UniProtKB/TrEMBL annotation:
GO terms for molecular function: UDP-glucosyltransferase activity. This is Glycosyltransferase. Belongs to the UDP-glycosyltransferase family. Keywords: Glycosyltransferase, Transferase. It comes from the Eukaryota. It comes from Erythroxylum novogranatense. Pfam families: UDPGT (PF00201).
């Protein structure tokens, strides 16, 4: 470690998409780089800086730069992150982000970095290349989502009906038969052909960013997605570096006292905890099926979800008589909770998740049984990875319209919580092996050490050609 720290005094600029699931791994990577001597300038809005500041473990080496989003018509005043708006308005947030180009250029002039890390800002290489600065496209979603949608082997028709059929068939050479989309799920990815910025679609933005960078970095590990990463590298014909999962060290902040008191009423491993992240908003009918499924499971449960569509409060969305029936064993709240600390609490034995990529890694690090109810395309691929490829979780069954029923959710929970049953015992055993691997300190640090070595190689290669 000491040798790496002495030779890794790179300065990098980071410019992530303004969503929690993107900003957080960028900061986590900055923390890991700082441990090895690298400094970082991280561009975020003021609200995002306030939200993430306490995760900056190396303030002497990691400096936040305040990003001011220009006014964009149809973007609500005061919007600073994707969590501030419904998902259908993120198109306008991307326009605002693109109009901060001059602010990024100013930070580059002031800090003179060796590298710029970005994801959604596909135009970053246009700035960096004339200045001799290397660019790394940092992918914070699963490698499968890149491999199945945006590789050059894929030439998807923009006609939605045709695109659905094409997306349900993996591209040429795709290396998995189970981490795939079913026909009725492919429609969840047709949003990639919608506008996402001025004169550009989401698909074009992602493909351009991957095509124009000097190297692709992916927040994953070879043990789970090695074949996917090799496939992406062969398709784009450029280096693909893996950072590992980039999980934070356990925090010392205690779980809120009210939750400690509530959880302490229950036996170890008996509580079901359900959370779908900071952006997921369910339709009211699916929200009701979810809470009714938890009730039907018979286990004590705590649900932390945003209020569903079309209601003013989360209480308004609850099924008739639900609160009276579950009083004393079930809680539904519409506020943010300390997810990692809930998963670490000994009373919690099952995690019902949407399988966002961050939640996926957190679930693998926990002792909880895992039940998955994905909502978006990349979450479906994460789910297939856990449930079908490495077999540490159970996916809730759905119909061809993508809807799940309370009975199917209840059945999945009961199955994984039955540790004497064949499936419950299998996923528990597999999960324990993965958790042991991920908790090994050298496992994490080896990935970051190798990542920095790869950064050095890019710099040396560039200098050798001058």
């Amino acid at each position: 470690m000491a040798e790496i720290s002495k030779t890794s005094n790179f300065h990098v600029v980071m410019f992530p998409w303004l969503a929690v699931g993107h900003m957080t791994p960028f900061l986590q990577l900055a923390n890991k780089l700082a441990e090895r001597g690298c400094s970082t300038s991280l561009l975020l809005t003021d609200k995002a800086i306030q939200q993430l500041n306490h995760f900056n473990h190396h303030p002497c080496l990691i400096k936040f730069h305040s990003l001011v989003l220009p006014h964009v018509e149809d973007l609500p005043v005061g919007t600073q992150t994707a969590s501030d708006i419904p998902i259908h308005l993120t198109h306008f947030l991307s326009i605002a982000m693109d109009r901060t180009r001059d602010q990024l250029e100013q930070v580059i002039r002031e800090t003179k970095p060796k590298f710029i890390f970005y994801d959604m800002a596909h135009w970053v290489p246009q700035i960096a290349k004339p200045l001799g600065i290397k660019t790394i496209n940092f992918v914070v979603v699963c490698a499968a989502s890149i491999a199945i949608v945006t590789v050059p082997a894929r030439n998807i028709c923009k006609d939605m009906a045709i695109a659905e059929e094409e997306l349900s068939e993996p591209p040429t050479g795709y290396p998995s038969s189970v981490v795939v989309l079913r026909r009725h799920e492919a429609r969840l990815l047709t949003f990639v052909f919608q506008p996402f910025g001025e004169g550009i679609t989401f698909y074009e933005r992602i493909c351009t960013g991957l095509r124009e960078c000097d190297a692709i970095a992916i927040r994953t590990c070879r043990e789970t997605e090695g074949k996917m990463c090799d496939y992406i590298e062969s398709q784009y014909k450029k280096p693909v570096f893996l950072t590992g999962p980039l999980l934070d060290e356990p925090v010392n902040a205690p779980l809120e006292d009210r939750w400690v008191k509530w959880l302490s009423r229950y036996e170890p491993g008996s509580v079901v905890f359900c959370s779908f992240g900071s952006q997921c908003i369910l339709e009211k009918s699916q929200f009701q099926e979810l809470v009714l499924g938890l009730e039907l499971s018979g286990f004590p449960f705590l649900v932390a979800l945003k209020k569903p569509m079309g209601v003013s409060t989360i209480e308004e969305a609850l099924p008739e008589g639900f609160e009276e029936r579950v009083r004393g064993r079930g809680v539904v709240c519409g506020e943010w909770v300390q997810q990692v600390m809930f998963l670490d609490h000994p009373s919690v034995g099952c995690f019902v998740s949407h399988c966002g990529f961050g939640s996926m890694w957190e679930s693998l690090m926990s002792n909880c049984q895992i039940v998955l109810v994905p909502q978006l395309g990349d979450q479906i691929l994460n789910t297939r990875l856990l449930a079908e490829e490495i077999k540490v979780a159970m996916e809730v069954e759905r119909d061809e319209n993508g809807w799940f029923q309370k009975e199917n959710l209840s059945k999945a929970i009961k199955t994984v919580m039955d540790k004497d049953g064949e499936l419950g015992a299998t996923v528990m055993k597999n999960h324990a092996k993965w958790r042991e691997t991920l908790k090994n300190q050298r496992f994490m640090s080896n990935y970051v050490d190798k990542f920095i070595q790869n950064m050095r190689l890019i710099v040396r290669s560039s200098e050798a050609t001058i």
